[in-house]
Amino acid sequence: MIPHRLLVVFSAMCSAGMAWAAVLSAGLLAGVRLAPTPVAVGVAAVLTVPGVIAGVLGNRWYYRTTRPRSPWSLTTWVPPHVPHWASMLAGVIFFGFWLSVVVAFAGLNGNAEMRDGQYVLDHNGRITVINQADYERQLDHEQQISLGVLGALAVGGVFMTGAVLTHHAAPEPTHTQSAGLPLA
Fold first, then answer.
1. What is the Cα 55 distance to its own chain's centre?
2. Total domains present in the chain
3. How far apart are CA 100 and CA 38, in angstroms?
4. In a domain, 79, yes or no
5. What are the distances in angstroms from CA 125 to CA 78, 111, 112, 122, 175?
6. Domain containing 15: what range?
7. Is residue 158 in a domain?
8. Disulfide engineering: 144 pairs with which of 73, 104, 129, 158, CB 3.0-4.6 Å?
9. For 21-53, what is each residue's pLDDT tens digit?
10. In what order do the strands lie in the sheet with 126-130?
11. Element (H, E) at 25
């Protein structure tokens, strides 16, 4: 089992990672790069990944489920004690990060590189010389994709660690809920 205090720390880290990714992604969507890519993505990863791992492990230990009871019902994917509004809020925030990734992918025109002192795009072996503004825009899209993925992971980490942290206050499950037992 993961200690309660450690789960609180991981949940706070995921919350900070989610906020970090959201602010930087919003800046990129507005055309402003607030941090260089190694710093932006590195900080987001350090804040997010431990909490996601703790959330997955904690949920696996508490609920011992192998699959949802019904693949198209939200309530079967969510621990029974988590409020519906929390699930929906997590879904909306996750969708926002997903949308930022889709928007960034739509703007990619290839792999931006520096070759022989020139800015170029390599798209399936076809090299195109571009100006510095286009080069920077491509790098912004790449950073936005990384931040969007890490932000979406952070949403899951916050949700899962929150579910484990509030498990002790959960009411007794009904016969239609898993109660931590494997599902048939």
1. 13
2. 1
3. 19
4. yes
5. 45, 10, 12, 6, 59
6. 4-100+146-169
7. yes
8. 104
9. 999 999 988 888 899 989 999 999 999 999 888
10. 111-115, 118-123, 126-130
11. helix 4-29
